[in-house]
Amino acid sequence: MQPMYVSSATMLLLLVELQGTQPDRQLACRLWEAQMDIPAFTPSQTCVQLALKTTMHAQQTDLAVKTYQLVLSRRWPGIRLGFWADKVMIYGLAINGLATEAMEVAVATTEHQDLDSDIVAMQTIQKYELLLKGLSRQFNATMAEAVFSYVRDELRLWPSVPMYTSLLGVLACRCDWSKIETYLTLMEADGHVIPQVVWKRVLLGLAKQGRADLCDKVLDIMVSRGIPHTFVVVLASIEVFAQRGDYEMVARWYQVIYKTLMAQVKKTHAEQQTVNIDGTVTHNGIRSDDTQPDVVPTSILQPEDFVEYFIQRNELIWHRSVLACLLEVVGEIGDAPLLMRIWEDIYGFHKEVRTLRMAPHMYMALARSLTRHNLLGRYESTLCMWINDERNGFSYSQQEEAVEYVKLCLNSPQLVLQRPRLRAVPHVPEGEGGSQPTKKSSPMTRQE
After folding, report:
1. What is the pTM of this model?
2. Spatial distance between the Cα atoms of 249 and 108, rounded to a whole number of angstroms
């Protein structure tokens, strides 16, 4: 039976709508694959670009490669070849663990003879930024170093801040402090000012390996450079002690979160809206970056020292990544009564603190932790009721994703518990440093 033909505009609308969850993206891939083989189907470039991204994020790399090959063969009229398709393929292959293939595409599409052109050099830098970003997500430090060296030594281009950020983040996950120092020194030698995001990526990477000593070293550097502590410090601290199985320290860091949120509850709604959120602000909020406490703590081994600091800075440290991580960690190394007490606190603060927003993966983390303690059957209906609460602001797809995960935990608990934690290392935004390569004697190209 032949699939029904749809227009390019209809296909684009379907692709846009089916982005909310992984099952949605899988359905989008099936629809796209069915249309590709219809001779009369002539998608727009926007439609093809979104289809490429969807297939990559749905882990349908074979379908993505087939789509890319059709673009290269000029199957569809009006579709331009070039940079837009190359960068989607490079990043997509990298995040799907196909590092060698991603590098091959990057090298094959590099216009070596035209690198003296500002536009070509900038597009080349952006492609390798995406490649390094994808390798960082896969924790592939060896390939990341090789790519960085290729750009700097073979192409003779100046590595950009996002390239350094990705490389340093993945090196931190290997706790290679000597290389971290080497690349930080090189970064400054290249004329870059090391942005806050680099220190935060390094901090999180070291935390995943349970290296409290190196985390304290990074905090010392942050304090010396005037970089304020944010929710990233709390997340890193919880990760450190979770890796070490130190239940007592995790509980002490939970008290930092609890006391800071209690201070928020006592503020008016207007005062809550002026909270600092990692360099950004809430709606109608006012930044207060100059409000720096007199004493800045520098050791994650003393969590109590951070309470007054965060209260004085009016810092919202209960970022959703922190909440999900906390729930899963307590589920792994804590006890059921503490887990439920923490959740009750979260749900209570959700009603009192205007800037605290829930997310589907928080409910999913709770479901997983309840599964570990054989309690999900008791709380299933209550948890689903919380997920479908309109105050969460979830879309229909987000609600469905969370409810389906609860059902998966009930039906296949061993399968769920064998998987890694939902958000082991959350993405730290890379926008703080910009994405433009540093220019010296030539706009993009390094000179001796």
Report:
1. 0.81
2. 50
